[in-house]
């Protein structure tokens, strides 16, 4: 509705930059993809607020638990709410060193809100949810109206 090809490309480039910063283990570059006051919810439900918390949390991750990991990420949907606000839904996973593709069980679904301010796109919000396919199937069998688009 509001998107131009250049805007779609800019939001895609921002997403790619985020993934590249993860792969480089660069917490500052990763957090720079977010607004100063961004809200960031991890897949375990931890709510980070602002770039400093995003930097600190990711620096700790890359020093220990997720050292030398990289991301698989794919934009599934991009929708512009206004010329300066876009919502993207992505599929992603953290890949271990030497891993080229995610296992189905690793996949998570992310929702990111990108905002343009002063001509620059950044993410203002991020939500990461572990994909629970078994629960999707169970729920769909109980009532088809809540079935996911593709099982």
Automatic annotation (TrEMBL):
Domain DUF4440: residue ranges: 11-122
Give the SUPFAM superfamilies listed for this entry.
NTF2-like
On the tree of life, the source organism's domain of life is Bacteria
Organism from which the protein derives: Actinorhabdospora filicis
NCBIfam families linked: SgcJ/EcaC family oxidoreductase
- Note the Pfam families from the entry: DUF4440
By what name is this protein known?
A: DUF4440 domain-containing protein
